[in-house]
Write a structure and sequence with these properties.
The complex is a heterodimer of chains A (about 475) and B (about 500). Chain A contains 15 helices and 16 strands. Chain A is α+β, with helices and mostly antiparallel strands. Chain A is elongated and about 95 Å long. Chain B has an 11-stranded mixed sheet with strand order 1-3-2-4-6-5-10-11-9-7-8, with helices on both faces. Chain B is built from 15 helices and 11 strands. Chain B is about 35% helix and about 15% strand. The chains are: A alpha+beta (about 475), B alpha/beta (about 500). At the A-B interface, loops of A face α9 and α10 of B.
Chain lengths: ~475, ~500
């Protein structure tokens, strides 16, 4: 995206830092539970609360999840990494330091392919992924002079995934977050729920004149809780930078907050003193060593990821890039589609899934992937009934609705409702004869050259057979009748 | 003074096994002695009721044939170990009134071995000190008196000063200590008892209030080598709750006391003879070498060239870790809180009121050496030097089996000495700190008395996880030294 300013054209430079909460039953360094929505301070061990003498012990599951994510991002896995303490005082940071990874993260450089609206893709660099503990939550609005602290989140494992400053528009940033979330969900390493805070994003934004390769001072916009807001915040921030530069000003490096109501970013209350986090290796923990065997075994259990799946859907089922992209956006939709399409015509399957099925799925919140309006098996069988001529595409629409209502399989519905299309020539001819007999004037008109009325006859006969006449046969027989 | 308090752990164990007296009787004798010697200030909290209860339970276990390694033995626990339901303070105002809901691994293991807890022993605040003068709960007095000046109050050393004084004064049969730079060995030497800092990782640090995590190591303090071996056997072992605890089997340390050290090579580091080392220390060291020679070992002069950098290295690494470890004492969740006008103000007031001067000094040093712009010059460099110091020992142990040095540069000093200059105080640990930096086992045992009748200690340093050789050599030295002196009134 190029922004036209008064002095020329500007380009936006965006890097994103995503904090993704690791899916694990226990916290990064304690056995306390991690489920969302528990009562405040209900999931806190003495370790999480920073009690005297308590020591962290790494949760291997979280390490595996980080490796898994690293592999999913085609990134380098560092077999030795080091946990460091990031020291600062805050009421919701019980130890007075956050255990994080500093100069030796568990995952190094990788790549993420973003899918752009025109069907093209672009590679965005991943700088690193490291494991760290989350802090607790401060609640300031429950008492006039005191703050409440909830330590349920304290110690929960996060993966901080840092991109390179490779994005050039809010749309690309949105595509990055969407794709990252898709990959995390495929990997089942983070649920990607931004509303619940299990995926949080900080955006680093700067601008530069088009053609320049410099990196100007960036501002960091903290904790924006939806993809749409991230895009809005980036756009606002970029325009602010351009305004400042074009008015002869300088951008100072700072942390800003996005106000989603006003749609603007603003400087965070400037802290009294800049933080010096005094990082040093945590002496309570040995360097984290991961064996190549473990990495290999995790690699072996990696699911087919969206990019590969998309390519396969295009090759195997003949989908176009857009349709394939829609299908693989969620692991569940891809699985559903494949359940329908396997052994059938892919395009027909895609049309049904993206058409009637998605429409119904989205029509009512009660439908989920574990409780879909129709099963992939039944939808597939229905397509088989179309193919073998048992029902017409038109009848199939009705069968689909009956399937949604009853949950029965399509063959049973066709049987019970008598929806089987009429392919008996005699029955159709009989219906044609009746229509002809009732409308001699219109028959004459057609014979006099008014071909347009042919369609009217087809409609009348179809109506007479309650829509069950095989449309192909009907057309053929009517044409034949007029030639007589 | 009851005869029962004069026994060693091994003697009491064997006599109770024969039914000569009960744990209740042994415990009562110690409770009485403990109460009679409150003037020493060795205990911060006495737990006589708990001790009686535990002693009763112990006698029942013995009757049921389930006696543990320390069945019925009354011990004192340094107040750095969290003890369930019993106030744990690290001798700091900031933790006053804190009663943990958990038991440290080491004190828990001692209870599991059948021991009885008499109370929580005094120490330097957060284990920072070599005199036990920095405790918020009052200084500890060394039970030993100088012959030349009997009125002079002597320090017991530190930081495990309460532990050393209690064991020396016979108001605990043994005690737990922790050693970060000499906190077991130096007070053991000052009080004429035996103490061992095991190899880093031998005993779990879980539930021990942290000072400097990469150096802290719990260990036993007792009247003789055998008692230390028995206690360490109960305290040691891998703990999955401490990532730095070593996954190694615990040997039978007592069985290592064979008395046979023929053919062993004993390293004598030439760097441990700094200018101005007192003659009496020099002499007791020479004497130690002679004893080992007589027992068939061979002294070998070795060099530990980076020794002189150990003290400055330690005083970067330990405060750096401490500055971070002590951040959790912020008034938010437990211990002292001094209200303030804002969160930052509350932090400042709480920590200013809660920490004593030595702790504040080390937090400031530690914060400084980790700061942006100073990290490389101090912390990072100190870590490199620490590696060199460890390499010195590694190299030395290619040729020798154990190293013999003095424990401290002097005998116990007066309470009014060394107090105005912290650096002079820090020099007390000059012989013990290198071992700590290298993570090696170091044992101090009493080897003789100086002209004032005060005990002097010698230190034996071993290979990593080779406490057995250390104990074996210490046992031989102990026999040769025949150290039977006791403080006045014991």
């Amino acid at each position: 995206m190029i922004i036209q300013g008064d002095t020329g054209d500007w380009e936006i430079v965006i890097g994103l830092e995503v904090h993704a909460q690791v899916i694990s039953n226990a916290k990064l360094f304690s056995g306390a539970a991690t489920a969302f929505g528990a009562e405040p301070n209900d999931q806190v061990s003495f370790v999480d609360a920073g009690f005297p003498g308590m020591l962290p012990v790494i949760n291997e599951k979280c390490v595996e999840q980080a490796v898994r994510t690293g592999l999913g991002l085609k990134a380098q896995i560092n077999l030795t990494s080091v946990f460091a303490r990031k020291n600062y005082f805050y009421a919701d940071l019980p130890q007075g330091y956050q255990i994080s990874q500093y100069d030796m993260p568990i995952v190094g450089e990788g790549t993420l392919l973003i899918d752009l609206p025109d069907g093209s893709t672009r590679a965005i660099g991943i700088e690193r992924l490291h494991l760290e503990q989350d802090a607790g939550k401060s609640i300031h609005d429950m008492h006039p002079s005191k703050s409440y602290i909830d330590l349920n989140r304290s110690g929960v494992a996060l993966m901080e995934i840092v991109s390179k400053p490779d994005m050039r528009s809010p749309e690309e940033a949105g595509a990055y977050l969407t794709k990252l979330r898709t990959i995390l969900r495929y990997l089942e390493t983070c649920d990607g729920n931004m509303q619940e805070g299990s995926m949080r994003c900080d955006a680093n934004v700067s601008v530069r004149p088009v053609g320049s390769t410099e990196l100007r001072t960036r501002c960091e916009i903290k904790n924006v809780n939806s993809i749409r807001f991230v895009q809005q915040a980036i756009e606002f921030e970029a325009r602010r930078h351009i305004d400042v530069y074009e008015n002869g000003g300088e951008i100072k490096q700072e942390t800003r907050l996005f106000d989603s109501v006003k749609g603007e970013t603003r400087s965070m209350r400037s802290k009294e003193h800049a933080h010096d986090y005094r990082y040093f290796p945590d002496p309570d923990l040995l360097p984290l060593v991961v064996s190549q065997d473990l990495v290999d075994s995790i690699q072996a259990t990696l699911p087919e990821l969206p990019d590969e799946k998309k390519a396969r859907f295009m090759a195997e089922y003949g989908l176009n890039a857009y349709d394939a992209g829609v299908m693989v956006a969620e692991k569940d939709s891809a699985e559903f589609f494949e359940g329908v399409a396997k052994g059938r015509d892919g395009k027909t399957a895609a049309n049904w899934v993206m058409g009637d099925f998605f429409a119904t799925m989205n029509s009512d919140a009660k439908y989920t992937w574990t409780n879909p309006p129709v099963t992939a098996e039944n939808l597939g069988k229905m397509i088989d009934l179309i193919k073998d001529g048992t029902i017409s595409t038109r009848l199939a629409k009705d069968v689909f609705i009956f399937m949604v209502e009853s949950g029965k399989d399509p063959a049973t519905i066709v049987e019970e409702k008598g929806l089987k299309q009429v392919t008996d020539t005699g029955a159709i001819e009989k219906a044609i004869d009746e229509v002809f007999a009732a409308n001699p004037d219109k028959v004459a008109e057609v014979k006099g050259g008014k071909d347009k009325l042919m369609g009217w006859f087809v409609g009348q006969v179809m109506k007479a057979t309650q829509g069950k006449a095989n449309p192909g046969m009907l057309n053929e027989l009517i044409a034949k009748k007029f030639k007589e | 003074m009851s005869e029962l308090t004069k026994l060693t752990i091994a003697q009491a164990r064997d006599k109770m096994a024969k039914g000569e007296f009960t744990a209740v009787e042994l415990t009562e004798a110690h409770i009485k002695a403990m109460e009679a010697k409150r003037n020493l200030g060795a205990y911060i909290v006495e737990t006589p009721d708990l001790a009686r209860e535990q002693a009763k339970a112990s006698d029942l276990r013995r009757q049921a044939g389930q006696a543990g390694a320390l069945e019925g033995i009354p011990l004192g626990i340094k107040d750095l170990f969290c003890t369930k339901g019993v106030q744990t303070t690290a001798a700091s105002h900031i933790l006053e009134g804190f009663k943990p809901q958990y038991e440290s691994t080491v004190s828990g293991k001692l209870l599991d071995a059948g021991s009885v807890m008499l109370g929580k022993l005094n120490l330097d605040e957060f284990a920072m000190g070599s005199s036990n003068m920095t405790s918020y709960f009052g200084k500890v007095t060394n039970p030993w008196k100088s012959k030349s000046d009997a009125a002079k109050q002597l320090v017991p050393g530190g930081s495990s000063g309460g532990s050393a004084a209690a064991v020396a004064a016979r108001i605990a049969m043994g005690a737990t200590g922790t050693d970060t730079g000499g906190s077991i060995r130096q007070p053991a030497a000052f009080c004429g008892i035996t103490g061992i800092k095991p190899t880093y990782g031998r005993c779990s640090r879980w539930g021990v209030v942290a000072f400097a995590s990469s150096l802290d190591q719990p260990g036993p303090m007792a009247r003789d080598v055998r008692d230390c071996a028995i206690m360490l056997g109960a305290m040691a072992g891998h703990d999955s709750k401490d990532s730095t605890s070593a996954p190694m089997a615990v040997p039978n340390f007592e069985a290592a006391l064979t008395g046979d050290i023929r053919g062993l090579k004993v390293g004598i580091p030439k760097e441990y003879r700094p200018d101005g080392l007192s003659d009496e220390i020099q002499q007791v060291w020479e004497q130690g070498i002679e004893w080992l020679k007589a027992a068939g070992a061979t002294p070998v002069e070795i060099t530990l060239p980076h020794t002189k950098y150990a003290l400055p290295t330690y005083y970067i690494v330990a405060p750096a870790e401490a500055s971070s470890n002590l951040a959790r004492y912020d008034g938010v969740r437990f211990g002292l809180r001094v209200e303030g006008s804002s969160l930052d103000d509350m932090y400042k007031k709480t920590r200013a009121a809660g920490f004593g001067p030595e702790v504040r000094r080390r937090i400031m040093i530690g914060t400084y050496v980790l700061s942006a712009g100073y990290y490389d010059a101090y912390y990072s460099k100190a870590q490199k030097v620490r590696r060199l110091i460890a390499d010195d020992f590694k190299k030395a142990f290619e040729t020798v089996d154990v190293i013999l040095t003095p424990t401290a540069p002097s005998a116990a000093f007066g309470m009014d000495e060394n107090t105005d200059d912290p650096v002079t105080m820090w020099l007390n640990d000059v012989f013990t700190i290198p071992t700590s930096l290298a993570g090696l086992p170091g044992l101090s045992l009493p080897a003789g008395l100086n002209a004032d009748g005060l005990p002097l200690g010698l230190q034996l340093i071993g290979r990593p996880f080779d406490e057995e050789t250390v104990f074996k050599v210490a046992g031989v030295m102990e026999s040769a030294a025949g150290f039977t002196a006791t403080p006045e009134g014991v």
